[in-house]
Design goal:
This protein is α/β, with parallel strands linked by helices. It is built from 13 helices and nine strands. A hairpin with a 6-residue loop joins strand 6 and strand 7. The relative contact order is 0.14.
Length: about 325
Amino acid sequence: MAHSEIRLSVAEERTIYDVAAIDRAMEEAAGNRNEALATLYDKMKQRGGGRFLIRPTGADMIDELYDTCPNFSDVIDDLKKYVALSVAGNEPMSFTPILLLGEPGIGKTHFARELANRLGTGHEFISMSSLTAGWVLSGASSQWNNAKPGKVAHTLVHGDYANPVVVLDEIDKAGGDSRYDPMGSLYGLLEHDTARAFKDEFIDIDIDASHILWVTTANDERSIPEPILNRMNVYEVPRPDHDAAISIAAALYREIVGQHDWGFPPEADEAVLERLGSLPPRDMRKRLLAAFGTAKLEGRNWLEGRDFEQARMGRSRKIGF
């Protein structure tokens, strides 16, 4: 299948923060100057408060995801409805926040990245399992030492778009000090009306975060608060069946071969696809890259099943000292 071009056009510029509000905040903080905050305010003033909203120009812009992520077909089906509405109304891309629910290794994170790439609005990837305090999303007060803005404000202030994809990976593993709920800020951020006046604790002015496209992933929904679940469309993603695994393997092979001038044929043979398709989706890329390297070391421009043997591969394990 030939890759289609991502067809995007720029919608209107939308003001996501008021520059005059920065001036007022600087005056109020004049007696307690924070150099990091002052530098950020200067940058925000120089850039201005306008950011682009991206709209799709073709209802088929995410169709390739059916090949690369076939076990996510239910999610893609629904997202295409939002794309169609955006195209029909010549409106910016938007959709209800989504939760991808399923066992580890089935490609949830891969799908989120692929979706962000197809939408083309830029994206921020946040591993929720590493969050130990709510301020990582919503910032910490400038009165604290080493305080800085949260991920949401950072993405909107430093990015080019008002509707980036923000991926919250493993939202069910968010933990840490109970005094600082990592998901506390999401109650407002996932609601369109309240997100229009999101206040990062560090920047301390209203920022319009209502256009963010939220994609979250989880292995288990039981630890996610019900009010958060109610704000999202929840999809239980199945493990790829045999045909889906072969489709993922073929798409991945074509993608990698197309990106490099290594001399391999544009399509993998059936035996290679069967071997690759037997692996969990999360392992396919690293094992395929290792197989390409093995073939080259032996002077071949084609892959064989034995290239996927794991004897020479390192194990993905963190080593503590």
